[in-house]
Specification:
Blueprint: H1 2-9, H2 13-25, H3 30-41, H4 57-65, H5 73-93, H6 110-122, H7 126-138, H8 143-154, H9 163-176, H10 183-197, H11 201-212, H12 216-221, H13 228-240, H14 243-252, H15 257-273, H16 280-299, H17 306-318, H18 336-346, H19 349-365, H20 370-384, H21 390-401
Helix pairs in contact: 1-2, 1-3, 2-5, 2-21, 3-4, 3-5, 4-5, 4-9, 4-19, 5-18, 6-7, 6-8, 7-10, 8-9, 8-10, 9-10, 9-16, 11-17, 13-15, 15-16, 15-17, 15-19, 15-20, 16-17, 16-19, 18-19, 18-20, 19-20
């Protein structure tokens, strides 16, 4: 695994593929490759300096790693190897190793440190945000407190295609499989990205709306999830009406936050289906809505910050000039397994994240609504096209090893 880590850290994508295939031939597991890759990527990153492309490597690798339930073992290997190559490309284009030195925070209690981190992130204070996160970790704050704080900061911004929350969600999932001593290293890149590029005006507006509309109690206690037909009506409301009042109306009618998210993700999928060009703009509607659901799941629906994630997802959706109605389902939707097998051969960073989001969300919304998610993923893959350059090397290795 040393060769793999070195190849990633010097930005050698071809060498990363060779090292990963060598490791597989020597008996390494996919789990071991994934852990080695993310650990290498978390060393000496730089998420603070503008670059030709955004750092999608860790989120893409994380997404394809979690496609395991829909992929044959060889296809899962192929996808993870491609994800590892993206880590090296990030290093070459973006991760230069210049890092802010954490500043010792003024606070000491966990809640005060939490607030200090959020304020520092909002004001672009990298050293302050970094120091508060490190102090929280060293004080023994629980994983839930750490994740809640990071995701609350990440949800503050709706610019930059929503990458702050999307990347935050994936880096939290990376942290989940790492020991406590590595949790700071896993969360720090997401926090730097949020702090360096975020503008938190949208979050302030959403929180003010939630308070004025008294959404806290219903958001924490509602449990109703309507029938699929009613949910399609709500999805079309999100495509045509003001987003925040629509959330408020749903909550006042007793629907749960998860039901609100069901409607948002179906609407987000539709913007992808009906989008234009390569659909790279609209794909973020889907991945952002999925990140919002994962954030709610991580903090718990009862947590007051959960409603922020849902309101921000609704606002984000409305910012992409979506269609006004859902297209009827005509052809049979592709299977999740077919979509997963297809994306590892096409291998686009956004494709990995979009397909994983679509498949997970298809399970969340249930079989009647799942075809809207699966259709959207297929439409995106049609637009993205291409074939991974890793496939040839991977197939050659498979033939050579029998």
């Amino acid at each position: 695994m040393d060769n793999l880590a070195r190849a990633i850290q010097v930005g050698d994508a071809a060498g990363t593929v060779r090292a990963a295939l060598d490791a597989l031939n020597a008996g390494a597991t996919i789990d071991a490759l994934y852990l080695s890759g993310v650990r290498a990527a978390l060393v000496n990153y730089d998420y603070e300096t503008p670059a030709p492309r955004l750092p999608h490597g860790i989120p893409a690798l994380n997404a394809v790693y979690y496609l395991v339930d829909w992929l044959e073992p060889d296809d899962h290997c192929l996808g993870v190897v491609q994800g590892l190559a993206y880590l090296a490309l990030d290093r070459a284009f973006y991760l230069k190793g210049r890092q802010t030195v954490p500043r010792t925070p003024a606070s000491s209690t966990p809640e005060a440190l939490r607030r200090e981190l959020l304020v520092a992130a909002e004001h672009g204070d990298l050293a302050g945000a970094d120091g508060a996160l490190l102090a929280l970790v060293e004080a023994g704050a629980s994983r839930q407190v750490l994740y809640r704080t990071l995701l609350e900061a990440a949800a503050g911004d709706l610019g930059g295609f929503g990458h702050e929350l999307i990347a935050g969600q994936h880096l939290v999932e990376v942290a989940e499989v790492l020991p406590d001593v590595e949790v700071f290293a896993a969360l720090r890149p997401a926090l730097h990205f949020v702090t360096a590029f975020g503008d938190h005006a949208a979050a302030r507006q959403s929180l003010a709306f939630a308070q004025t509309a008294n959404l806290g109690d219903p958001a924490a206690t509602n449990t109703q999830r309507p029938a699929p037909g009613a949910m399609l009506t709500w999805a079309e409301r999100f495509l045509s009406d003001a987003p925040l009042p629509t959330v408020a109306t749903m909550l006042r009618q007793g629907l749960s936050l998860m039901s609100v998210l069901d409607a948002i993700v179906v609407a987000a999928a539709e913007t992808l289906t009906q989008g234009s060009g390569t659909r790279r703009r609209e794909v973020h509607n889907l991945t952002y809505a999925h990140a919002a659901r994962r954030a709610v799941q991580l903090v718990g629906q009862h947590d007051p910050v959960a409603v922020l994630f849902v309101l921000q997802a609704a606002r984000f959706l409305s910012g992409f000039a979506p269609p006004r109605s859902l297209l009827p389902l005509t052809d049979a939707a592709p299977t999740p397994q077919a979509l997963a097998a297809r994306v590892v051969r096409q291998a686009s960073r956004h494709g990995f994240k979009a397909v994983e989001a679509a498949l997970v969300e298809a399970g969340e919304v249930g079989p009647a609504l799942a075809p809207y998610l699966l259709r959207a993923a297929a439409v995106f893959l049609d637009a993205a096209g291409g074939q991974t350059t890793v496939l040839g090397a991977f197939q050659t290795t498979l033939r050579a090893t029998g």
